[in-house]
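Onboarding guide, step 5: your first structure request.
Type a short instruction followed by the sequence, for example:

Predict the 3D structure of this protein.
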Amino acid sequence: MKSLILALTASTAMVLPALAQEPIKEFNIGVLGGENAQDRMTANTCLQKYTEEALGVPVKIFTPADYDGVIQGLLGGSLDAALLGASGYAKIYLTNADAVEPVLVKANLDGSTTYYSIGFAKTDSGIKSLADMKGKSFGFGDPNSTSGYLIPLVEIPAEGYSMKPGEYFSDIKFTGGHEQTIIAVKNGDVDAGVTWADGQGDWADGYNSGALRKAADSGIIDMNQIVEIWKSKPIPEGPFVVRKALPADVKEKFTALLAGLGEKDKDCLYNVASGETAGFKPVTHDAYATVIDVRKAELAGQ
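The system replies with structure tokens like these:
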């Protein structure tokens, strides 16, 4: 019996090191499309620096040209974390439920964790609502964008306006991202477009946070030049996710860094969160159940 116990002890000692997760050698953060790559890189340089300090390994920021670049990076394991839209998270979950886990969500100044899909047109276009868009072109950011496509794809037809090109709108165009949609409307490449905003604060500022706020801050658009023509129902903010296979201590340190980013560096939080926010707070998979169902239906219909 004694020899058996010793044998089992020895075999267990050999197995445990093999099961232990090896320390990471680097950490890669993906940033969704929506504005040009250099601006995305600049906005997240502070997060790169703080993550290196927290984890003690080199950190790289990746800015793929489209949303799917980040999605595939997370699915393939080449990216370790990213701030996703709810639709992007839904696609990852439906592809591989064990790829990532949501840890935090951006909170608005009033504590809410929702935002809106905003339809807009040039002020001098004469377009004031979807009723004025018959026979006109509509710009959307990316097929994997929640506010930039998925929600309008569901809600606009429910209001009686077909999203099939040529049936009501003359054309449906994908611009490549939120910033590109704003520029396309400004330049007259499309008659109207859709982007995202928290819907709080003043229109003249681009609201408190979102693509309109970033565009207004950077001088891309004067908010007096555009008018809101449509607004969705509240949409759940997308999650900051981490790769599930990461060591537990890495996930904990990175999550703690994000949760305390506002106290550490308010300007960094402003850049990472695309405007004024109350910071990041905990979130779980359950918050995205409805969006996952919508995305599942959308994928099934393709």
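Each response can be followed by summary notes, for example: The chain has twelve helices and twelve strands.
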